[in-house]
């Protein structure tokens, strides 16, 4: 608890948690019902809805790269403020859009804004906490994000906003509050004032030659590919089991509540005590076990239990991924590294969804056992590869920490 009190006593870190909370309230006022709104209220076809969501994902990747580099060269605060304001504009755009083309345009705007904010917040967190506290710090960010998910999800459920345009106005209002909060409450770090002059493009080119980091990103595709299966299989399997999609949204509420209650415990008693690489291996095992178990469930509560197993994997793997990106990053380029990290999660998520959907369809659909057995096989292969990587990387990780403690004033070799 001492570490938690120490972190929460850091005013800038606390403000960043509040920003993450507001951001996820706004996101989850819209995300769970956006496809339903497009289908029921605007009568768009499934393929059109897919294009609208895909353009947001594509622009999110581009925004992450641009936002990461700009947060290093200009100001993390300015990038966050700009991204939140852009998302507010996108929500207002959705509220008045009538055509497929306009929804495409504002979906692209929304994805760009989100891409600007996400890496800048992560880089700012890495700026204001010590390296030894980063895993715990990102665990707390996860808690704040999931509180926002709960608030957003319950709001649209209680107010029955699934096909009402007013939900976009509410989301825009939250983004406007976030914009002003970041602008007036978040202090500007002193080191950012000279950052623009001190960085050269050759330093950014060097990032692409950072083999250890790129190797880490490559193996992380396995983790995020499994993680991306959740929003794909939960609605499909839930609909198959329960015959209705009405209760599927409760799965997200249950999981987010579980994260809020237990992420701090897992961070304190597990993540702070084991290697981050082994935490990723363990998290991947739980992700896969949760997916595998979903194939054997036939009731809401057993299905929810399988989803909780999956979410334990998220609580183990996601915070250490963000922490390890900060470990590999060279301090002046934190934003760029987190931008690349966001692109990795986006690419693996897109590939995971595409391949997962194809696999499920090819193996008989969610009512067949074959896709779930395949998830089990994929999990075992992924865990084996990640275990080999953990054995290789853990020794190097310890050597760097020892070198850093012996030569604290020297730049760490990577």
From TrEMBL:
<feature type="transmembrane region" description="Helical">
    <location>
        <begin position="207"/>
        <end position="230"/>
    </location>
</feature>
<protein>
    <submittedName>
        <fullName>Multidrug resistance protein MdtH</fullName>
    </submittedName>
</protein>
<feature type="transmembrane region" description="Helical">
    <location>
        <begin position="250"/>
        <end position="270"/>
    </location>
</feature>
<dbReference type="GO" id="GO:0005886">
    <property type="term" value="C:plasma membrane"/>
</dbReference>
<feature type="transmembrane region" description="Helical">
    <location>
        <begin position="78"/>
        <end position="94"/>
    </location>
</feature>
<feature type="transmembrane region" description="Helical">
    <location>
        <begin position="12"/>
        <end position="37"/>
    </location>
</feature>
<feature type="transmembrane region" description="Helical">
    <location>
        <begin position="100"/>
        <end position="121"/>
    </location>
</feature>
<keyword id="KW-1003">Cell membrane</keyword>
<keyword id="KW-0813">Transport</keyword>
<keyword id="KW-0472">Membrane</keyword>
<feature type="transmembrane region" description="Helical">
    <location>
        <begin position="337"/>
        <end position="360"/>
    </location>
</feature>
<dbReference type="InterPro" id="IPR036259">
    <property type="entry name" value="MFS_trans_sf"/>
</dbReference>
<feature type="transmembrane region" description="Helical">
    <location>
        <begin position="372"/>
        <end position="393"/>
    </location>
</feature>
<feature type="transmembrane region" description="Helical">
    <location>
        <begin position="142"/>
        <end position="161"/>
    </location>
</feature>
<feature type="domain" description="Major facilitator superfamily (MFS) profile">
    <location>
        <begin position="12"/>
        <end position="394"/>
    </location>
</feature>
<keyword id="KW-0812">Transmembrane</keyword>
<dbReference type="InterPro" id="IPR020846">
    <property type="entry name" value="MFS_dom"/>
</dbReference>
<feature type="transmembrane region" description="Helical">
    <location>
        <begin position="49"/>
        <end position="71"/>
    </location>
</feature>
<dbReference type="Pfam" id="PF07690">
    <property type="entry name" value="MFS_1"/>
</dbReference>
<feature type="transmembrane region" description="Helical">
    <location>
        <begin position="303"/>
        <end position="325"/>
    </location>
</feature>
<dbReference type="InterPro" id="IPR050171">
    <property type="entry name" value="MFS_Transporters"/>
</dbReference>
<feature type="transmembrane region" description="Helical">
    <location>
        <begin position="167"/>
        <end position="186"/>
    </location>
</feature>
<keyword id="KW-1133">Transmembrane helix</keyword>
<feature type="transmembrane region" description="Helical">
    <location>
        <begin position="277"/>
        <end position="297"/>
    </location>
</feature>
<dbReference type="GO" id="GO:0022857">
    <property type="term" value="F:transmembrane transporter activity"/>
</dbReference>
<dbReference type="InterPro" id="IPR011701">
    <property type="entry name" value="MFS"/>
</dbReference>
């Amino acid at each position: 608890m001492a570490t938690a009190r120490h972190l929460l006593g850091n005013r800038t870190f606390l403000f960043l948690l509040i920003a993450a909370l507001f951001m996820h309230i706004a996101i989850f006022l819209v995300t769970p019902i956006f496809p339903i709104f497009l289908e029921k209220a605007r009568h768009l076809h499934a393929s059109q809805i897919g294009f609208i969501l895909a353009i947001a994902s594509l622009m999110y990747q581009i925004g992450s790269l641009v936002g990461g580099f700009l947060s290093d060269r200009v100001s993390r605060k300015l990038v966050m403020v700009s991204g939140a304001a852009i998302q507010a504009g996108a929500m207002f755009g959705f509220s008045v859009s009538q055509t497929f083309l306009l929804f495409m345009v504002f979906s692209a705007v929304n994805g760009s804004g989100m891409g600007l904010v996400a890496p800048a917040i992560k880089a700012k967190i890495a700026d204001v906490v010590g390296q030894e506290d980063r895993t715990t710090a990102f665990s707390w960010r996860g808690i704040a994000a999931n509180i926002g998910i709960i608030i957003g999800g319950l709001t649209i459920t209680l107010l029955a906003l699934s096909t009402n345009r007013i939900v976009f106005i509410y989301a825009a209002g939250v983004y406007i509050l976030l914009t002003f909060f970041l602008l007036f409450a978040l202090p500007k770090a002193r080191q950012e004032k000279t950052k623009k002059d001190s960085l050269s493009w050759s330093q950014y080119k060097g990032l692409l030659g950072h083999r250890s980091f790129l190797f880490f990103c490559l193996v992380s595709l396995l983790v995020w590919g499994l993680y991306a299966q959740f929003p794909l299989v939960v609605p499909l399997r839930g609909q198959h089991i329960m015959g209705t999609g009405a209760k599927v949204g409760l799965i997200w509420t249950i999981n987010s509540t579980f994260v809020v209650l237990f992420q701090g415990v897992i961070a304190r008693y597990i993540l702070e005590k084991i290697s981050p690489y082994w935490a990723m291996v363990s998290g991947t095992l739980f992700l896969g076990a949760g997916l595998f178990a979903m194939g054997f469930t036939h009731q809401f509560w057993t299905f929810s239990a399988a989803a909780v197993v999956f979410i334990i994997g998220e609580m183990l793997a996601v915070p250490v991924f963000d922490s390890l990106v900060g470990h590999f990053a060279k301090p002046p380029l934190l934003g760029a590294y987190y931008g690349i990290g966001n692109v990795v999660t986006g690419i693996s998520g897109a590939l995971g969804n595409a391949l997962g959907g194809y696999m499920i369809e090819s193996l008989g659909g969610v009512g067949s056992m074959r896709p779930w057995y395949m998830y089990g096989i994929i999990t075992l292969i992924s865990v084996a590869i990640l275990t080999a990587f953990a054995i290789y990387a853990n020794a190097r990780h310890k050597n760097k920490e020892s070198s850093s403690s012996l030569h604290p004033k020297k730049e760490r070799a990577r």
